[in-house]
Design goal:
Length: 293
């Protein structure tokens, strides 16, 4: 059973889970309709059942989280004029919704139907297709991937077990972000670190894209500049050490080379040359006058 609490009614477990971020959000201008969904703790048998079913051991910090609350949801909106616009969303799926990203092939599916595993190849085995950074997860049996947050359709935050062997229980997990173009981006090595990132970024739209080479969309950056400008400005894109990957770097002198006219300076006669010619003309005139005499 879920209970929705609004306003300043954040006490006990709810206050600890939100790390006090609810009070900060309430003090921000324009923030309204702050909602926290309180859930009962997950039962231990549910966690054991999940581990046996998926042949994975839940990380200790995530296990403790589920023993405190079976999932997490906090949303907030902004009032512009008379309209209430949903903006922030922080979510962690419950144990029941912690499902594999790559579903097993069904008997009723078409024999030649494409799957995520068909998009996996060795050349794309590193993060974002680059040659540096941790090795990205695979969509086949080499990795076991579970969805923690659907990010409102802007990607997926996943609990990932890499370098898996069939029939062997996986124990080491990491937090990764899968963007809409199906590229992987490493977030944090532990669930606790990711949870802190989520709280720190206030659940702003597309905040996970701050850890990608291309960053959030312009609209998401506008919301970030209003409510969390320092964090988004300090995070430097791996693709651009200067941190200005979103700036238009068009060079008009190169792009419009045929259109730009370079003014040609007019040639001016040197003062020395004109002075010399004047002196010569005066000397010749003097000679002519002396000859007449």
């Amino acid at each position: 059973m879920e209970e929705t609490k609004e306003g300043t009614a954040f006490r006990g477990v709810a206050e600890r889970l939100t790390l006090g971020i609810a009070r900060i959000l309430e003090s921000m201008p324009g923030v309204v309709d702050l909602r926290f969904v309180e859930r009962e703790p997950a039962e231990k048998r549910c966690l054991l059942s999940w581990e046996q079913k998926n042949t994975c051991i839940l990380p200790e910090d995530l296990r403790d989280f589920y023993l405190t609350t079976d999932g997490f949801t906090l949303t907030w909106s902004v009032k512009l004029d008379s309209e209430c616009i949903p903006v922030g969303c922080m979510m962690i799926n419950s144990v029941a919704r912690l499902r594999p990203l790559v579903q097993p092939i069904s008997l009723f599916s078409l024999p030649n139907a494409p799957s995520l595993a068909d998009l996996d190849w060795e050349e794309n085995s590193t993060e974002g297709g680059s040659t540096s950074g941790p090795t990205a997860p695979h969509f086949d049996s080499r990795s076991r991937i579970f969805e923690l947050d659907s990010c409102g359709g802007n990607g997926k935050v996943c609990l990932v077990y890499r370098s898996c062997t069939q029939g062997v229980v996986a124990q080491q997990s990491e937090m990764w972000f899968l963007d809409r173009s199906l590229y992987w981006h490493f977030l944090t090595p532990t669930f606790t670190s990711y949870y802190r990132l989520m709280i720190t970024h206030l659940g702003l739209p597309e905040w996970q894209y701050a850890f990608t080479p291309y960053g959030p969309s312009p609209q998401a950056k506008q919301w970030a500049s209003l409510y969390q400008p320092l964090i988004f400005n300090r995070e430097v894109s791996p693709a651009d050490p200067a941190g200005d990957s979103h700036i238009n770097k068009l060079d008009p002198t190169k792009a419009f080379k045929g259109k730009v006219k370079t003014p040609v300076p007019k040639k001016k006669q040197s003062t020395q040359g004109s002075t010399g010619s004047t002196a010569k003309s005066q000397a010749s005139t003097g000679k002519q006058g002396g000859a007449k005499r």
